[in-house]
C-alpha cells in the first residue's frame, strides 16, 4: 500500500461511486499504476500539482505519496468529495479540492510555481484542456510539464511524426512548443468500468520558446486549412489563404503538390512567416 487509506475498491463501495458516463469517468483502481503515473511526472518534491477529475482519489494519493508539495484537485462530481476529504485528512495541508468544472475554474489563483499538471483526464474534455494549456496568451505558460492520460488514439496523435496517419494539427500544436512522449500504455481492463479503447499516458515538457519562430494565430490558420482537406495538394487546400499561395509555398521550400501530412513543423513555421509577411 502507498498509504494508510483503504484500497480504492473499498472507497468506491463505501461511497457508492459508480462511474458515470456523463462525466466521462473510468476509474483506475490499481494504486501501483496510479503511483507509476505520478512517477512519470518526474520529481514532484518542489512542485505544486494540478489534477483534473481525481474521482475517488487514486492518482491524488499517488501524487501525494510521491512527494508533491501541494495538490490542487478539481472535481465536477460532488459524489467524489467525501472520498477526497478522507485523502485530504490523511495528508494535512497538502491537498485542496475544488468542486467545479476545470474549464471554468481559475486554477492559477490556487497554485504556486513551479507547477506540474498530472491528470487521468475525463475523456470528454481531455483534448479541449490540452489545447487550452498549449495555447495561452503568453508563452512560456504557467506549467512546467503535463503528464496526462488520453485514449491511446489521441496520445498517438500528440506524438505523431510527418508521414503517419496520426500526424496532424494536434502533433504540430504540441511539438511546436514542447517535447512529448508516450510513457505508459494501459489496457481497458485496468479501469472500472473498462472503456472500449486502450489508454496511454503522455508526458509533455514545455520549451521556454517555440521551436521555430512563427506567429501563433497564423500558424494555427495555415495548419488548420492544410489538414482540413488533407487529401488535397497544398496549393489547392491553401488557395483561400493568399492569391499567390504557390509562390509562398515555393519560397518556404514546400513543393505546392505536396500534401499536409508530408510537411514537417519547420516548413509549416516557414510558411506561416511567409503568409504573415505577405
Describe this structure in words.
The protein has two domains: 8-206, Rossmann fold (3-Layer(aba) Sandwich); 216-277, Orthogonal Bundle (Helicase, Ruva Protein, domain 3). It contains eleven helices and nine strands. By secondary structure, the protein is an alpha/beta fold. It starts with 7 loop residues before the first helix and ends with a helix. Helix content is 35%, strand content 18%. It has a seven-stranded mixed sheet with strand order 4-3-2-5-6-9-7. A two-stranded antiparallel sheet has the order 1-8. Strand 2 (48-52), helix 3 (58-65) and strand 3 (70-75) form a beta-alpha-beta unit.
Shape: elongated
Number of strands: 9
Report the helical percentage: 25-40%
Task: Report the mean per-residue pLDDT as an integer.
Answer: 95
- The CATH superfamily title of the largest domain: Vaccinia Virus protein VP39
How does the major sheet shape up? 7 strands, mixed
**Distance from first to last alpha carbon:** 61 Å
* Low-confidence spans: none
- How many H/I helical runs? 11
Amino acid at each position: 500500500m502507498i498509504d494508510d487509506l483503504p484500497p480504492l475498491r473499498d472507497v468506491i463501495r463505501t461511497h457508492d461511486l459508480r462511474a458515470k458516463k456523463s462525466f466521462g469517468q473510468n476509474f483506475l483502481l490499481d494504486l501501483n499504476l496510479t503511483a507509476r503515473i505520478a512517477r512519470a511526472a518526474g520529481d514532484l518534491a518542489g512542485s505544486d500539482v494540478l489534477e483534473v477529475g481525481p474521482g475517488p482519489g487514486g492518482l491524488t494519493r499517488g501524487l501525494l505519496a510521491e512527494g508533491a508539495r501541494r495538490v490542487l484537485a478539481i472535481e465536477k462530481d460532488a459524489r467524489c468529495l467525501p472520498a477526497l476529504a478522507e485523502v485530504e485528512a490523511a495528508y494535512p495541508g497538502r491537498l485542496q479540492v475544488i468542486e467545479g468544472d476545470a474549464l471554468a475554474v481559475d486554477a492559477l489563483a490556487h497554485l504556486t510555481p513551479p507547477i506540474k499538471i498530472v491528470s487521468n483526464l475525463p475523456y470528454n474534455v481531455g483534448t479541449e484542456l490540452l489545447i487550452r494549456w498549449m495555447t495561452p496568451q503568453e508563452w512560456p505558460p504557467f506549467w512546467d510539464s503535463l503528464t496526462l492520460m488520453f485514449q491511446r488514439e489521441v496520445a498517438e496523435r500528440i506524438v505523431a511524426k510527418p508521414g503517419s496517419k496520426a500526424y496532424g494539427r494536434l502533433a504540430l500544436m504540441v511539438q511546436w512548443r514542447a517535447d512529448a512522449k508516450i510513457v505508459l500504455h494501459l489496457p481497458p481492463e485496468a479501469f472500472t468500468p473498462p472503456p472500449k479503447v486502450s489508454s496511454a499516458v503522455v508526458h509533455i515538457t514545455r520549451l521556454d520558446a517555440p521551436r521555430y519562430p512563427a506567429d501563433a494565430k497564423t500558424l494555427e490558420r495555415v495548419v488548420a486549412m492544410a489538414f482540413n482537406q488533407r487529401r488535397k495538394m497544398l496549393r489547392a487546400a491553401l488557395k483561400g489563404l493568399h492569391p499567390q499561395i504557390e509562390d509562398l509555398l515555393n519560397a518556404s521550400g514546400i513543393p505546392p503538390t505536396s500534401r499536409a501530412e508530408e510537411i514537417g513543423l519547420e516548413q509549416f513555421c516557414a510558411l506561416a512567416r511567409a503568409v504573415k509577411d505577405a
